[in-house]
Amino acid sequence: MEIGIDSFAATIPNPATGHTVPAADRMEALLAEVETADRVGLDIFGIGEHHRREFLDSAPAIILSAAAARTKRIRLTSAVTVLSAADPVRVFQDFATVDLISKGRAEIVVGRGSFGEAYPLYGFAMNDYDALFVEKLDLLLKLRDETNVTWRGRFRPALSGQGVYPRPHQARMPIWLGVGGTPQSFARAGTLGLPLMVAIIGGSFDRFRPLVDLYRDAGLHAGHAPETLKVGVHAMGFVGETDQSAADAFFPGWAYMFTEIGRERGWSTATRTQFDAMRGPHGAFLIGSPQTVREKIVAADKALGGISRVTFQMSSAMLETEAMQRSIELLGTEVAPAVKAALGKTPF
Q1: Residue 47's closest CA among 99, 8, 104?
Q2: pLDDT in tens, 14-31
Q3: Rounded to whole angstroms, how far apart are CA atoms 149 and 60?
Q4: Which of 108, 134, 174, 235: CA 20 to 30 A from 45?
Q5: Spatial CA neighbour of 88 closest among 45, 46, 151, 130
Q6: Residue 181, Cβ neighbours under 10 Å: how many?
Q7: Residue 304 has pLDDT above 80, yes or no
Q8: CA–CA gap between residue 286 and residue 25 (Å, rounded)
Q9: Mind giving me the DSSP string for 321-340?
Q10: CA pair distance 70, 31, nearest whole angstrom
């Protein structure tokens, strides 16, 4: 199993003081987090894509390029690229460039996005939400496999054999499909034979088992080998010296973000009671001491029938810079080796 971190480059005010870290300082801290993750042996670091005041990740490929120049081993990915609102040619070129800088460590996780700001920003209609993604994913996959592509669609000018450069360092750059809870998305990933990244930010892991089974069944029905049908999980996660210290470091930022975002979506205010339930034995938050987090990852692997990758969404704890660095160290030096020893190093 691969273990790593996803960041949304969050920049939120400290609930206690109202102070917001300057954007340039937050970006420097983020790159330091990637360097630490690389140093302690984590497998993957992802940068999200949002177009909101709370996040600095509207251009993930640029952040990943900076990270590529400062790291040696860790793989670097988007988490996720909002492909529906992007030009697949530019996305491919951007990540091929990251792949060259990193000498073959780039990946792309593509999705439709859980926030809608990118669509009007780039002139697309939310009514075309799914059609945009289907068409653009088709083009992105062709670009990965062919240098000179002939292609025609509804939402982008046709290609008539132009060369798309640069080509990546890897012979076939990995492209994962990021999904939430829509069955059609799971089935689509399986039919295409793409590795699946499931965002599980609430509830429990086992409630996603039917959807993961749907993905695997669709993949097998389409003729893909079982070992190619990889499942990854993106979850809220944070490691502390103790369960209590991890929870106390993560909760303030989480509560702020989910209260603010929830207000837009008609949700109730995020509470400590909800938070504590989600970090409990049956919740999907991977928050606690190294032993607690290890046990929860192993349980998640069992609940979902075997998973190949787990990434921790730790941005909510960015208010605690030292705790963030220590959490990354604990994840790399204590949690990851213990999980891999328990499950074996060969991905499912």
Answers
A1: 8
A2: 877 888 999 999 999 999
A3: 25
A4: 134
A5: 151
A6: 14
A7: yes
A8: 27
A9: HHHHHHHHHHIIIIIHHHHH
A10: 8
